[in-house]
Specification:
Elements lengths: L9 E4 L2 E5 L10 E4 L2 H9 L6 H16 L11 H15 L6 H19 L4 H31 L6 E5 L14 H10 L3 E7 L6 H13 L3 E4 L4 H6 L5 E4 L3 E3 L4 E4 L2 H10 L4 E4 L5 E2 L16 H4 E8 L4 H10 L5 E4 L5 E7 L2 E9 L12 E4 L6 E4 L2 E3 L8
Parallel strand pairs: 4-5, 4-7, 5-6, 7-10, 8-11, 10-17
Antiparallel strand pairs: 1-2, 2-3, 8-9, 9-16, 12-15, 13-14, 14-15, 17-18
Bound molecules: 5-S-methyl-1-O-phosphono-5-thio-D-ribulose (MRU).
Length: 397
């Protein structure tokens, strides 16, 4: 239980991108092995990998993966090769629309691609260049997070009580985290009294991921439902709210996980400073303000029901035999009533399940925006790897 024990969510190994499947955390620690760029896109879209910096790095590895698989079937890195590479890059860059880090990372790697092709390198050498570029992006992100963590920790003195939303931790980045990076750095300086963790409906990045990371790191924390934040603020139990960001516009308007705006409004009401922690790769100077940000809308089933993944514990031989039989031919999809779904598979000598259970009426209408927009006026400061700045400083970063 120390900050050094926090998880690394993605890495390159054996010619493939390995990802912890965050949809199944914390009860199952599965690793997805992506051998194709299409697999990386699916992982991004399904939230197996998520968090603005992490999807950017995954996208960059996705382009390198294309170059080292399909890209090798081209006789040379001529016009056809380049056209296809850019087509793949655009698919990856647009896998999710709101976090600018994804398109930023993929387009940054496209500069490496264009330079390598202009040098006349063959497809194998271009692929290796791209892989080096993706690895460098991961290293740069980790360094940025450590730097912004240190800059942010300097803002606080012991004992500080934080509230955070979603997961802006190691799992959302190459390593260490942004909002949680600040909290980890402050914790190592013994400044953290407590962290309130919003569960973050509908996909529960707070209760599944942040709560787990903070436990692993040994940071004292308490999980609350999103609608309890006002109560803990009014009680005087929060000294600072700190969140990550998916896109910060030139005027400081910030898109982040749905629910962030409500917290910012509450923080203003209760006179609690509200901080956004993000690397400068999250800043989008092409947008003067937040009105141009595309907010992703996700599958209504995220709200119509809940998912659960875990291990089955067959406590009698008869149940084990039944499960063995059921999964003899591979994973079993159990027919359930009312649209519920349950899938059972063998895993590591036991049995794992993935379920989706509906807990709303059929045909109910659902609105499911994944992010919201917090106007700059609510944000006390932006904690970046280049220092702590106000909205007015953003264009100069
Ligand atoms: O939908 P998600 O889980 O990708 O949303 C993540 C967030 O909103 C994070 O707060 C943001 O990406 C910052 S992560 C360092």
């Amino acid at each position: 239980m120390a900050v050094n024990d926090i998880p690394r969510t993605l890495w390159w190994e054996d010619n493939a991108l390995h990802l912890i499947d965050q949809t199944r955390l914390p009860l199952q620690g599965d690793v997805l092995v992506c051998n194709t760029y299409e697999g990386v896109m699916l992982a991004i879209q399904s939230l197996a990998v998520r968090g603005a910096p992490a999807i950017g790095i995954a996208g960059a590895f996705g382009l390198a993966l294309w170059a080292l698989t399909e890209g090798l079937s081209f006789p040379d890195s001529g016009a056809d090769y380049l056209a296809r590479a850019h087509e793949v890059a655009e698919q990856l860059a647009s896998a999710r629309p709101t976090a600018v880090n994804l398109s930023w990372a993929v387009h940054k790697l496209c500069e490496t691609l264009d330079a390598a092709v202009a040098e006349g390198l063959d497809p194998q050498a271009v692929g290796e260049r791209l892989l080096d570029g993706a690895r460098q992006q991961a290293a740069d992100d980790e360094a940025a997070n450590r730097a912004l963590g240190a800059a942010g920790a300097a803002l606080f003195s012991a004992p500080t009580k934080f509230l955070t939303h979603c997961n802006a931790g190691s799992l959302a980045t190459a390593f260490y985290g942004t909002a949680l990076g600040v909290i980890y750095a402050a914790h190592e300086q013994e400044k953290v009294e407590h962290v309130w963790v919003d569960e973050t409906r509908p996909v529960n990045q707070g209760s599944r991921l942040t709560a787990w990371e903070l436990l692993v790191a040994g940071v004292p924390s308490t999980l609350i439902c999103d609608n309890m934040a006002a109560t803990v603020m009014r009680e005087g139990w929060v000294d600072a709210v700190i969140v990550g960001a998916d896109r910060i516009c030139a005027n400081g308007d910030t898109a982040n996980k749905i629910g962030t705006l409500g917290l910012a409004v509450l923080a203003k009401e209760f006179d609690i400073p509200f901080y956004v922690a993000a690397p400068t790769s999250t800043i989008d100077l092409s947008l003067p303000d937040g009105s141009g940000i595309v907010i992703e809308e996700r599958d209504p089933r995220e709200i119509e029901g809940f998912t659960a993944s875990g291990q089955l514990d067959p406590n009698t031989p008869a149940i084990a035999v039944a499960l063995d039989k059921m999964t003899a031919e591979g994973a079993a999809d159990l027919p359930l009533t009312k649209g519920h779904r349950l899938n059972i598979a063998r895993k590591g000598g036991g049995y794992a399940f993935d379920g989706w259970f509906k807990n709303t009426p059929s045909h109910v209408q659902v609105f499911n925006p994944a992010f919201d927009l917090t106007p700059a006026t609510y944000i006390r400061a932006y904690i970046t790897e280049k220092g702590v700045v106000t909205a007015a400083d953003i264009p100069s970063l």
